[in-house]
């Protein structure tokens, strides 16, 4: 029997995406709930589609990371979270407490780095995992036994990426995506690219080169010469951006277990929480999980 994959959840990315994807919802008491509902519905869907899967929730700690230290403009353009979203974030810990599966954060690192660290452990052990996120940065993890389930914005279907799918989409393997970002930039993280280098050029430059260091080594012989000149003129920026874009797999974590399957008791506690939040449509879904897999 095939072992169910470990589900590695990029918690805040998914939570924020749920908030902006769903219309405003509230309890009879007036408490906003759309992000809590959307996140919970996605969680139940994943557990239904992957019977027996283990869970790990990765979270940001709220402290500055090494990226903020090394590059002050990092994500500086992002607006503050809306008040109804902040109010719901305070409730998210209750979901974790009731479910009782691991929640991992690492001061000085982002949730993405936590996911990269756990994914590296699982890849070494040749155990399959599905990273679930709405953040394209995580696509660099999609190789070996790890796939990335990218949750699209409202109206767009989710897409699951393995190494072949990343190559087909970006023209480079997953582990070269940080170099790709260094060339192209990433407005969502406020990371600069090289002016004058477009998508086709970036793909061509990285076709047979593993890193920005190799690219800079070959810059004097690049054709056309203008491209090589651009690379050398932005050498420091390219090196720094590649380092910022590359996920770290050495985030300090608490002792294992780093993931666990939800128990019947945990799901029962979560069901009671759904009742408190008036998530009536989720009750039949969690009841099916509690009943166990259907048998022919």
Order of helices and strands: EHHEHHEHEEEHHHHHHHH
Report the count of strand segments: 6
Task: Work out the strand percent.
Answer: 5-15%
CATH architecture of the largest domain: 3-Layer(aba) Sandwich
**Between the first and last Cα atoms, what is the distance in angstroms?**
16 Å
Q: What fraction, in percent, of the residue positions are helical?
A: 40-55%
Please, how many helices?
13
Order of strands, widest sheet: 3-2-1-4-5-6
- Write down the overall mean pLDDT: 94
Integer count of domains: 2
- And the CATH topology of the largest domain? Rossmann fold
**Rg value:** 21 Å
Question: What profile does the largest beta sheet have?
Answer: 6 strands, mixed
What's this, in brief?
By secondary structure, the chain is α/β, with parallel strands linked by helices. 46% of the residues lie in helices and 8% in strands.
Question: Could you characterize what this model shows?
Answer:
By secondary structure, this protein is α/β, with parallel strands linked by helices. The chain folds into 2 domains: 210 residues, Rossmann fold (3-Layer(aba) Sandwich), CATH 3.40.50.1010; 72 residues, Orthogonal Bundle (DNA polymerase, domain 1), CATH 1.10.150.20. 46% of the residues lie in helices and 8% in strands. A 6-stranded mixed beta sheet has the order 3-2-1-4-5-6. Strand 5 and strand 6 form a beta hairpin. Helix 2 runs parallel beside helix 13. It is elongated, with a radius of gyration of 21 Å. The mean pLDDT is 94.
């Amino acid at each position: 029997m095939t072992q169910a994959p470990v589900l590695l959840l990029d918690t805040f990315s998914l939570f924020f995406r749920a908030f902006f994807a769903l219309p405003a919802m509230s309890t009879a008491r007036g408490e906003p709930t759309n992000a809590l509902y959307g996140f919970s519905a996605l969680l139940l869907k994943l557990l239904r589609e992957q019977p027996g899967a283990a869970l790990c929730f990765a979270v940001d700690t709220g402290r500055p990371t090494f990226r903020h230290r090394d590059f002050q403009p990092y994500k500086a353009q992002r607006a503050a979270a809306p008040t109804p979203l902040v109010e719901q974030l305070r409730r998210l810990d209750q979901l974790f407490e009731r479910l009782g599966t691991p929640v991992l954060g690492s001061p000085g690192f982002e949730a993405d780095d936590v996911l990269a660290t756990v994914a590296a452990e699982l890849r070494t052990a040749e155990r399959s995992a599905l990273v679930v996120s709405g953040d394209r940065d995580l696509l660099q993890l999609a190789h070996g036994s790890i796939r990335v389930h990218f949750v699209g914005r409202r109206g767009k279907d989710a897409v699951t990426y393995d190494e072949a799918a990343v190559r087909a989409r970006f023209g480079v393997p997953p582990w070269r995506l940080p170099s790709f970002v260094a060339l192209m930039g990433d407005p969502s993280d406020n990371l600069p690219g090289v002016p004058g280098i477009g998508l086709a050029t970036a793909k061509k430059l990285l076709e047979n080169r593993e890193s920005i260091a190799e690219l800079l080594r070959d810059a004097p012989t690049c054709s056309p010469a203008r491209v090589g000149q651009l690379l050398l003129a932005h050498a420091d920026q390219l090196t720094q951006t590649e380092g910022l874009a590359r996920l770290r797999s050495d985030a300090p974590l608490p002792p294992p277990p780093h993931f666990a399957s939800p128990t019947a008791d945990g799901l029962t506690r979560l069901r009671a929480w759904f009742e408190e939040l008036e998530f009536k449509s989720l009750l039949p879904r969690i009841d099916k999980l509690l009943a166990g897999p259907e048998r022919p």
